[in-house]
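Onboarding guide, step 5: your first structure request.
Type a short instruction followed by the sequence, for example:

Predict the 3D structure of this protein.
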Amino acid sequence: MSRILRLLAIVVVALAAAWSGAWFLVAGMIETRVGGWAEAQRAQGTRVAFGGLAVDGFPMRWRLVATDYEIAREGPAPHVLRGARFEALIVPWDLATVPLRLPGPQRLERRGAGGAQDYALRIEAERPDAVLRLAPDGRARAIDLDFGGVTASVPKTPFLVTAARLRVAVAETDPPDPRTREFLTLAFDAEDLVLPHAVALPLEPTIRAVRLELALRGERATRGTPAERVAVWRESGGVLELLRLDLDWAPLRVSGDGTAALDARNRPQAALALRIAGHQELIDILVRTRRLPAPQAAIFRTLAAGMARPDPATGRTEIVLPVTAQDGRLSIAGFPVAPLPPIPLPSP
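The system replies with structure tokens like these:
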């Protein structure tokens, strides 16, 4: 029996030694791969730097920790993202799913011509969680940022925005769906979004909930300048589909869907349908806050009453507003309201 126990002990020690060696080998590969990725980004005009880079988590996981990181996009108007800490967790039983954390403040800056700072945005979350999903070849195919207790502010100004929850999810469809030609989706969710008090608004400063879902469809170009890639998408019949819009901003409830594209001059073309409940209460607020004269309010009440219909699903009275963009002009319910210039594209 003692012989079997000694044999088992030798096997366990050998396996432990092998696993230890494998763990440190993988840890070194992770650091090397991150360094290689940073070099590749620099070659494409994006500067990536770390104050410190280390891998810990022995023995059952690998945790990559980057401190004092900086990601800067060069160009005529460069953007810089800085943060105190970035963490990525890798476990051997699920290499395709990488939980992320971004504790501490993150700062986004934009600089104009001559290097002068245009703005700086400071973002910090009490629950700074995210998930990165990888393709079999190691490329990022989706990222889901799910933050709780978010604060965004502009230093030295009264601008302050908070949210109980903020979620941004971007996912790549690779290969694209052959039926819909969908190659990218984006979802945005916010709960209890409190807008800056310095901004004079007719409604309450708190938006209870907002949800937006978008999908890009068409041919996706992977090479060329931004203008060339947009042209390929546009000429292939590319479409930006608004799958869902929900806004709960008392007393307003807004929902909608539709599609958008670009014309040959890169002007928006769109056909959307917005369903709005609480419109009469909004008119009351605008009159009470002296933003809408009473005679005009009476006209809007009459028009709204003629367009209002009960929603079979909720029973709420709502109006449906068609919104269109064509030939460089935005129209609501058939009435032109604003010009739409071409969309400027970023420089290479």
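Each response can be followed by summary notes, for example: The chain has a mean pLDDT of 85.
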